[in-house]
Design a protein that fits this description.
It is built from 8 helices and 5 strands; from the N terminus they run ααβαβββαααβαα. The N terminus is likely disordered. It has a domain of 172 residues: Aminopeptidase (3-Layer(aba) Sandwich), CATH 3.40.630. Strand 1, helix 3 and strand 2 form a beta-alpha-beta unit. By secondary structure, it is of the alpha/beta class. The protein starts with 23 loop residues before the first helix and ends in a 13-residue tail after the last helix. The longest helix has 23 residues. Helix content is 38%, strand content 12%. Helix 3 packs across helix 8 and helix 4 runs antiparallel to helix 8. It has a 5-stranded mixed β-sheet with strand order 2-1-3-5-4, covered by helices on one side.
Length: 269
């Protein structure tokens, strides 16, 4: 070594450290800035004169975060409302043929055809309808807005006055004013639909003391209708059954909807 050589006693400068992972320090700084920005924006959203001093400010802010980040939940299926219920008895159905005409036409078949059409019309009007047999077990304690039993009169020729329809309620009922209104609706609407006359003078005890009246629940208003005579009224009963059924259905709807009945005055209880 030369005597004139200069010895460098300073340590070498450190090399700059590389950041091959993408400079995580800067990324953390950006995340912090974004978080602060989001918080400030949220605070500004709530920062109104109405809530500037509100004690619920922070609670509302955190609720907003919860709603914004809540997962989509399936919507609950609404429970369908229960439809009002009406009962129809197809006279003699499931028990006997009722009146029988010389050509084999039976009252039971006519009653059932009318009742099925009435049921359809009441279903379309928004009601659930029970189609019941003459001595249906469901009649015991039966509850509904109304119960109507559908029948027809004799196939035999009696006289020229043996034509028209009849409606009757129970001879004794818990709510006579309701029974009176149901029969009034049935008479008025059926007469308007069919142009048939109300044959009041041949209503019998078989109608006013009809067995179902004592079997059903006392809260169920009930009536029985004989829609015509199978002799003189046969054409409308057999060939225009839809008209007959419409008259019955409109009479029932008049009652359950509490519609006006021209000339009817509600009895004073």
């Amino acid at each position: 070594m030369s005597d004139n050589a200069t010895i460098n006693t300073n340590p070498p400068a450190p090399r700059p450290r590389s950041n091959p992972a993408g400079q995580p320090g800067i990324w953390r700084m950006m995340q912090t800035i974004l978080s602060v920005s989001l918080l400030v924006a949220t605070l500004l959203t709530f920062w109104t004169p109405a809530n500037i001093l509100s004690a619920n400010l922070m609670d509302r802010m955190f609720r907003s975060f919860e709603v914004a980040n809540a997962p989509d939940l399936p919507q609950a299926t609404p429970t369908p409302s229960i439809r009002p219920r009406i009962g129809l008895v197809a006279g003699h159905w499931g028990n006997d043929s009722g009146a029988v005409c010389v050509d084999g036409l039976t009252e039971e078949s006519v009653n059932l055809k009318i009742a099925e059409l009435v049921r359809q019309q009441l279903n379309d009007a928004g009601f659930d309808v029970d189609l019941l047999q003459e001595f249906d077990k469901r009649l015991n304690g039966y509850q509904a807005l109304a119960l109507v039993s559908i029948h027809n009169d004799s196939c035999e020729y009696v006289n020229d006055q043996a034509t028209g329809f009849k409606v009757a309620a129970a001879a004794s009922t818990v709510f006579p004013e309701k029974a009176t209104r149901l029969t009034a609706c049935m008479i008025q609407r059926y007469r308007n639909a069919t142009n048939m006359e109300y044959h009041a003078n041949t209503i019998t005890a078989d109608m006013t003391e009809y067995h179902a009246f004592t079997e059903i629940n006392g809260s169920t208003t009930a009536a029985i209708i004989e829609t015509g005579f199978l002799n003189l009224d046969r054409d409308i009963l057999v060939n225009h059954t839809d008209v007959v059924a419409r008259g019955v259905a409109e009479g029932i709807l008049c009652y359950v909807r509490n519609e006006d009945v021209p000339g009817f005055e509600q009895p004073t209880p």
